[in-house]
């Protein structure tokens, strides 16, 4: 099943971050330094879920994705019971340490998620084709059930 067939049967909402960021400071500092932006961003995610539920979608039909700050927000949903999760990252990314993404993958696994964690040696703070292909395959698998 290709991306075209996945897209034909899906609805998308892609919220835009104000000022092209979800919060102003690093995610590794005090939470207060990112307020009120962080709370606003999380409220935006909650609003998207509420809209999806209002339109008849179940939790199993809702997919979150993100890169960098967006990935941090996407990792905040409440239930992970057998939820497919893809986490990809570099071993040398100057913005997000490999230890942090590895720890995130471990937490998701401990919370019951079905995690596909991949490390890309030497990759910059970017997304590569293998990550895109992997997420596409994950979506295809989810929509075929």
> Which geometry do the CA atoms define?
globular
Count up the helices. 5
Q: Tell me about the biggest sheet?
A: 2 strands, parallel
Could you give the order of strands across the largest sheet?
1-2
Portion in beta strands: 5-15%
CATH C-level: Alpha Beta
Q: Based on the structure given, which CATH architecture is correct?
A: 3-Layer(aba) Sandwich
Task: Please explain how this structure is put together.
- The structure is a single chain.
- The protein is mainly alpha-helical.
- Helix content is 40%, strand content 10%.
- It is built from five helices and two strands; from the N terminus they run αααβαβα.
- Strands 1-2 form a two-stranded parallel sheet.
- β1 (84-90), α4 (98-110) and β2 (114-120) form a beta-alpha-beta unit.
Short description:
The chain has one domain (3-143): Alpha/Beta hydrolase fold, catalytic domain (Rossmann fold), CATH 3.40.50. Helices cover 40% and strands 10% of the residues.
How do the strands and helices of this protein lay out in sequence?
Elements: H1 3-8, H2 37-54, H3 69-74, E1 84-90, H4 98-110, E2 114-120, H5 129-143
Parallel strand pairs: 1-2
What key phrases describe this protein's structure?
mainly alpha; Rossmann fold; two-stranded parallel ribbon
